[in-house]
Fold:
Amino acid sequence: MNRQTAAIALCAVILLGAAGCTGKQLTQRQIWLRHVKKVQENNKKACTAGCVLFEGDSNMELIDFQAFLTIPACNYSHRGSTTADVLARKEKVRKLRPAIIVVLVGGNDVVKSYPEETTARNYEELIGFYKSICERVYCISNLPVNPRLYIKNSTMLRLNTRLEKTCRKFGATFINVFPSLYRNGGLNPDYASDPVHLNRAGQEVLMGIVKKYLPK
Structure:
């Protein structure tokens, strides 16, 4: 399997969930779409000035933050988002005027073969912008992935190193969840719904760490 074919295959996994028969895939997709719709409906109630804003890719989009937090939490995350996509939504973030911004993005840059330097530059622009409009900015580390994927965990770790450095430069907070989700060379299968996404148990681990940084 060449790199382009592998990327297409991974996108299919991201869209439809774990592999299986066609009927099973459709069932998983329906469940996933219902979950996303519920999260989006909750977000309409919580996207107000002074909220906690979550931004990023599908691993953020799939978390129902209202189920984990007692403070207003808005979620602008969207599946497939790269650092460039999140940057394109920055004015939407400015208009919201959140009290806190929490972002997780970078994995799709790797899926789409962005040069690491491009991702690093986007991190600088994104975090610099966030800090110009919001005092409290938190950057969640990129997550481990299944070790059988063409995406390498060594790449994710290098991006995390760049992200952490950028956070220090701009005074943002780096939240390293990678070690807590890692086991035997990749994403802990106990926390995985597929090679790259967290299941409910994985979301609980991630949010358990993030909540330590947020107001009670």
Q: What stands out?
A: The chain has ten helices and seven strands. Residues 47 and 74 are 5 Å apart (CA to CA).
